[in-house]
Amino acid sequence: MAAYDCDVLVIGAGIVGLSTAHAITRAAPGTRVVVLEKESGPARHQTGRNSGVIHSGIYYPPGSLKARYALQGSAELVKFCAEHDIPHEVTGKLIVATDRSELPRLHGLIQRGREHGLPVRELGPAQIAAYEPEVRGLAAIHVGTTGICDFTAVARQYARLAQEAGARIVHNAEVTTIGRRPGRVAVRTADGTVHRARALVNCAGLHCDRIARLAGDTPGMRIVPFRGEYFTLAPERAALVRGLVYPVPDPAFPFLGVHLTRGVDGAVHIGPNAVPALAREGYSWGTVRPTELAGTLGYPGAWRIARRHWRYGAGELHRSLSRSAFAAAVRRLLPSATEEDLRPAPAGVRAQAVLPDGTLVDDFLISDSPGMIHVLNAPSPAATASLPIGREVARRALALLDRPAA
Predict the structure, then answer these.
(1) pLDDT tens per residue across span 24-73
(2) From the CB of residue 263, how many other CB atoms can be counted at a distance below 10 Å?
(3) DSSP sequence for 255-291
(4) Could you write out the three-class secondary structure of 209-260?
(5) Would the pLDDT of 3 be above 80?
(6) 120: exposed, middle or buried (C-beta count within 10 Å: 0-12, 13-18, 19+)?
(7) Whether residue 262 has pLDDT greater than 60
(8) If you average pLDDT over residues 102-113, what whole number do you get?
C-alpha cells in the first residue's frame, strides 16, 4: 500500500465531486480519498453560478437518470439543508404558457408530473394571479416540490463532512498529466506534485472530456460550452416576483428558457439566456481562449448543432447583444418589467456534452474504464441530484477497489 497516496483520487471540487467524496467516506469508512481542484476554493464554476433552484424532476422522461435522481435528490437535498442549517425554501413554482401553441406541451408536462407522483395543479389566468399577481399567462402548472437553496453552501458542507471522515481536498492543483497501469493511477499537477491512487474519478465538469482524453480514454463526446447570461431585478422592483416562474420549455433544446427566480438572498434572478461560450470558462464575450475555441470549432458535432438549431440560437444571440430584446422576452411572463429594471448579474457556463452527430446528450452520462470513472454529462439538475449521483459514482469507484459499501 506504500505505493499509493490514496485509494480514490477525485478530480474536481464541484458539487458532484464533493458529493462523491462524501459518499465514498460514508459507504466505506477508512477509504482514503483525495480531491484535486484547480481553483483556490470549491464550487467556482457550474455549482456556484446557477440560479439556485431545487428542481422537482417534472421535465425529465420517466426512467431517465435525470428523472430518477432529481425526484430522489430534491427530497434528500431539502432534508440535508434542514439538517445542516443551509439556507433553503420549498417555494413551489409556476410553469406558464403565454401562447396557445404552448398549451399541448403544458398539458404533456401535467401528465408527466402525475406519472412522477408530483403535486401538480393546473391553473387558469385568475389562479396564476393568485400566486403571482404580476405574471400573465393563458394557463399554468403549479409544481409544489420545487425549491431554492445555496448550492455553494451545500458543496462546502459535503467537503466538510468528507474531510471530517478523513478525505483530503487539495486546491490550486490543476491536473496536467495522467498515467495508468493495471491497478494504479498516477496524476501530476501543475506544481509538479504526483498523486498515486488505486482508482480515479473524473468530475471535472467543463473539462471532463479533456481529462478523459488525458487519461487515454475516448469519451465519445465533447463538451461544448454554453454561457448562461443573467440579470437581476432592481431591488425596488423585486416585489414584482414572489417565487419561481418558468416558461414552457422547448423539448428540442436542453435549456429551460428565460425564467424568474427569487433566490434565498431575496433577489430576483432572471435568465439564463444561452449562447455559445468562446472558452470553457468564458463568462463574457471578452473571454476567448483560442485553443479551446479551435477545439469547439473543429468538432463536427458543434457545426451540426448550429445547423439544426440556428433559429433558436439566433434568438438567443439577439437577446445577448440587446438588453431591450432580453427585456421583451421577460415581458412575455412579466408584462410590467422594463429594460431599466434589469441589472447585469454574473453569468454561468453549462458543460453540455455533444455527440459527433450533433446530438445534445440529454441525460446524465457516467462511463467506466479500467481503474476510472468519468462523469461526462452532469448539467442541471445535477446540483439537485448531487446526493444520489454521488452515491452512484461512489458505488462504481468502490467496485473498482473490490471494496463493498458498508
Answers:
(1) 999 999 999 999 999 999 999 999 999 899 999 999 999 999 999 999 99
(2) 18
(3) ---SEEEE-TTS-EEEEEEEEE-SSTT--STT---HH
(4) HHHHHHCCCCCCCEEEEEEEEEEEECHHHHHHCCCEEEECCCCCCCCCCCEE
(5) no
(6) buried
(7) yes
(8) 96
| Predicted local confidence at residue 300, as pLDDT | 95
**Exposed, middle or buried: residue 363 (CB in 10 Å: 0-12, 13-18, 19+)?**
middle
Cα 40 from Cα 181, distance rounded (Å): 30
CB atoms near residue 133 (< 10 Å): 12
Q: Which helix (H) or strand (E) holds 74?
A: helix 65-83
Q: What is the pLDDT of residues 362-402, one digit of tens each?
A: 999 999 999 999 999 999 999 999 999 999 999 999 999 98
Q: Is the dihedral of CA 168, 173, 175, 177 positive or negative?
A: negative
Report d(CA 347, CA 110) in Å as an integer.
Answer: 31
Over 70: is that where the pLDDT of 179 sits?
yes
Phi, psi of 250 (to 5 degrees): -85, 115
Amino acid at 23: A
d(C-alpha 314, C-alpha 285), whole Å: 16
Which residue is it, cell 396557445? 100
